[in-house]
Structures are given as C-alpha cells and as structure tokens.
Design a protein that fits this description.
19 helices; mainly alpha; about 500 residues; Membrane protein involved in the export of O-antigen and teichoic acid; transmembrane; about 0% strand
Length: about 500
C-alpha cells in the first residue's frame, strides 16, 4: 500500500470482481489436484496411514483457532483505519498483533508437543504399531503452529489491502503441494513423520511468502512496527468473539454426526456424512465472494454506506445467481446421483438426506453474506451469542428427532437451525445497515417463494415429471434473474465482465 492509496482505490468494482476470480481459483485448483491425488495416496499408504495423513490435514486447518481471530480482526481493523485515513496507527496495530500472535502460538505449540503422546494413545486410539509415527506427526504439527498462525495474520492484512492476487498465488501453490508433496515422497519413504515434516515445511514457506508480501506492500510501516498496549484490547475483543464463533460453529455443524454415531449406529453415519460433505463443498464458492466483500464492507460502512448497501445486496443476489440452480439440481435428482456415484444403498438412504442438505446449503449461503456484514459492522459477538443459545436446545432436539425419524430427523433439525440463523442474520443486517433494510423487506416474499420452490422435489415423483419440473424451474429462474433480480447496470456489468476483468488493475496502486 503506497502512501497515496485510499479507500476508493481499494474498492473499485473492477478490482473487486477480479479478486473474486482469484479467490475462486484458489479454491478450485487445489480441489482438482486433490481429486487426482487422494485415490493414489489411499492406495499407496493404506487405510491407517492415510487416516493419519487426513488427520494432519484437519489439524493444520483447525490450528487457525490459535490465532484468536487475529486474521479476521486485522482485516476489519486495517480496513477501518484506511477508511478513516489513520494509516499512521498501523505500525502499532500490526506490531502488537504480530507479537501477540507469536506468543500465543508458541504457547499452543508447546502444549500440543507435550500432549502428543497422550493424544495418540488415549484420545485417537491409534494401533500400537503406528503410535510412534503418530506421536512424531503431532510434534511436527506442534512446531508448525506458529507459522500457520503468523501466515493467517499476514493473510488478514493482505485481505484488507485487497491483494487477493498475492494471497491466492501462495494459496494455490500451498494447496497443490499439500496433496502432491506426499505423492512425491512416496518413492523414498512411507514414514508419516517425514511426510508430515515435508508438509510443515510447505506451510513455513507459505508463511514466509505472506510475510514478504506484507513487507513489500507496507514500506511505510515495516521499519516502525512496535508494541502498543491500547491496540491489544481492540484485537482481543474482536478476535475473541471470532474465536468463540470458530469454536461454536464447527461444534454445532458436527454435533449431529456425533449424536448419530452414539445413538443410531456408526455404520450408518457414512450415509449421513457423505451427502452432507458433498453439498457443503459449495460453500467455498460463496466464501470466495465473501472474502472480497468483507474488507470492502468494513471500509464503506465508515465512508459510503449507500455503496456498502449496494455491495451487500449485490452479494445476496450473487448467491441466488450462482448457488440456487446447483442446489436445485442436487435436490431434484438426489437419489439418482447417489445411486450412480456410490450404489443403491446410498441412493435409498442418502438420497432423501441429500435433498434436505441441498436446501439447507442454499439457505446457509445467504448466511455467509449477512455474517460478513455483521462482522464488518463491528458486531462479531452477535452470532456466537446466538450459538450459545442454540446449543442447549439443539442437542435435545437432535436426540428426539433421531429417535422419532432416524437420519432424516437429524437432517430436519439441522435445517431448522439453519433457518433460525437465516432469519436472525437478515434482521441483524437490516439493523446494522438501514440503507439495505427496505430492499431486504421487499425481498422476503421472493426468498420465501424461492425456498418453497424446492419443496415439490421432495415428493416421490417419477423421473420424467421431475425432469420437466426442473427444466421449467431453471427457465423461470433465468428469466426472473435477468429481468427482475438484476438491474440494468448489473446486466450490463455481466455482459462486459470479461472486458472489465482485463481492464482491472492487478493492484490498488
């Protein structure tokens, strides 16, 4: 960020559009590599060692909770300082964040190192022959925690500066290496300690790349970084609520899986988790939009609330435009898809669940957008507080629904929770951004009708009527989107998207 850069240069429409494309590339390219690499890894490593590798992937992702929400907090706070033209306060803010992140990540890494053996022996219940390797894996992961956290913090700063090009170059290379790295080592060793060490080395390099990018983007800051105690409270309060949300969110998301495993049968959990995992893979597409939206909203909520409202409503429309037809097709042909992919039992048991998950994933896609507005508006506490209210109600509802209706009962309770959060976040969005409230109120009947349009596909219709009904739905969806949902300017923007992306500068400078 040069000294002359301001909020307007970081939120130009062409730059935001290009950054969305960068984010999509960062999601899609590693996923394509994973599709090719995972079958080869499962065959070469065997079930037990591949399970350990999968666990390492999960741990590396979950270690981001140890940043205490600093990445998201920095995106919001740096964006706000730029909007308020308070760039002179960035050295104290970033220096305090870096020191705090390093301190807590070192403490977290030490705790994981010391607990490695008990975790392997008592919590994970690894086979005795794999326990030494698994303990080595945990210790390597413990060493990587400070690098993972510092990388998350640096990435938060780059997001505030709208440098999603730099972020996603590193993200793609790191994501591809996450799967190709173990494959490249297989001719030399199958020892998981060495394989995970190679993955940790990749994380170290990614973090160094993020830090170097921040160093280059902030020449006026890098020589003046320092600790400033008063900045700690802003980081800790905002980041603390983000951390609580990061803990409660996955807890609510996977409670149904644990309850099913404990009350029904572990052998049936796959019929539930496979359609769930398949449909939730759509969320990174929305996250690609929201990742760009969040810093832009953080700026415009302070500088131009009318533009903030336009960006927010455009993102809500994007959900309908991108996600609705995919979720509809999944709901319409859930049984056939599951049968073709995994066989008859998955079609019979998992098909009805896939319909419910497809509808829930579509509704929850709006929640990604409204949550970004709520957090950008400085209220990261609202959703964790709602989650704390939901959890004691959600658990007994799950037990009752599973007892009455089995797996479909659990999916229905999950869907009800998504709907509650959808209604709450719509209300919260209107309250935080009154400029969008009138448009949101007008959209409620249309959203309700759109959600209701999924329901005919839950009826036991033969394939031919469902094909006809899906075709009519898609045609109506396209016509309504083009004539009613999108304004003239938005239609023109879509028609000229390729030209805009070519003209858009790669940076805000």
């Amino acid at each position: 960020m040069t000294a002359g850069q301001d909020a307007a240069s970081l939120t130009r429409g062409g730059l935001l559009a290009r950054n969305v494309v960068w984010n999509l590339a960062g999601v899609v390219l590693p996923a394509l590599v994973a599709l090719l690499a995972v079958p080869l890894l499962t065959q070469a490593l065997g079930a037990a060692r591949f399970g350990l590798l999968s666990l390492a992937w999960v741990f590396v992702g979950y270690f981001t909770i140890f940043d205490f929400g600093l990445g998201r907090a920095l995106t919001q706070l740096v964006s706000a300082r730029i909007a308020e033209q308070r760039q002179d306060s960035l050295p104290g803010l970033l220096g305090t964040a870096a020191i705090f992140a390093l301190a807590v990540s070192l403490a977290s890494g030490l705790a994981v190192w010391l607990l490695a053996a008990p975790l392997v022996q008592q919590v994970m219940k690894m086979p005795p022959e794999l326990q030494p390797e698994a303990a080595s894996v945990m210790r390597v992961l413990a060493v990587s925690i400070p690098f993972v956290i510092l990388g998350t913090v640096a990435r938060g700063v780059l997001e505030a500066l709208q440098r999603f090009d730099l972020i996603n170059v590193v993200r793609v290379l790191s994501g591809v290496y996450l799967f190709l790295g173990p494959l490249l080592l297989l001719p030399f060793t199958h020892d998981m300690g060495w394989i995970i060490a190679a993955l940790a080395a990749g994380k170290v390099l990614a973090t160094l790349a993020f830090l170097q990018s921040c160093w280059q983007q902030l020449p006026q800051v890098r020589s003046r970084l320092h600790w400033q105690r008063r900045e700690l409270r802003a980081l800790f309060v905002f980041g603390g609520w983000i951390t609580l949300g990061n803990i409660l969110g996955p807890l609510l998301s996977y409670t149904d899986h644990f309850v099913i495993g404990a009350t029904v049968a572990l052998s049936l959990l796959g019929y539930y988790s496979v359609p769930y995992q398949m449909t939730t893979r759509l969320w990174p597409v929305i996250a690609a939009v929201v990742g760009v939206l969040f810093p832009a909203l953080s700026i415009h909520l302070l500088t131009d609330r009318a533009r903030a409202a336009r960006l927010f409503l455009l993102a809500m429309k994007s959900v309908v435009f991108m996600i609705a037809p995919v979720c509809l097709l999944l709901a319409a042909f859930a049984t056939e898809f599951m049968q073709l992919w995994l066989g008859g039992d998955y079609g019979r048991i998992g098909g009805p669940l896939l319909r419910l998950f497809a509808l829930g994933v579509f509704i929850n896609s709006f929640n990604f957008v409204t949550l970004a507005l709520v957090q950008a508006g400085g209220r990261p506490d609202w959703v964790p507080k709602l989650s704390m209210l939901e959890l004691p109600l959600y658990l007994p509802a799950l037990f009752w629904a599973i007892h009455v209706a089995g797996l479909q009962g659990a999916a229905l309770v999950w869907l009800a929770r998504i709907l509650i959060e959808f209604v709450f976040l719509l209300w919260a969005s209107g309250r935080l951004l009154p400029e969008s409230a009138a448009a949101l109120r007008r959209s409620v009947p249309g959203l309700a009708l759109l959600i209701a349009s999924f329901l005919p596909f839950f009826a036991p219709l033969p394939l031919a009527p469902r094909l006809l009904l899906a075709g009519v739905w898609l045609l109506a969806w396209f016509l309504i989107c083009w004539t009613r949902l999108l304004g003239a300017a938005e239609r023109e923007a879509l028609q000229n998207l390729r030209a805009r992306l070519r003209r858009a500068p790669a940076t805000g400078s």
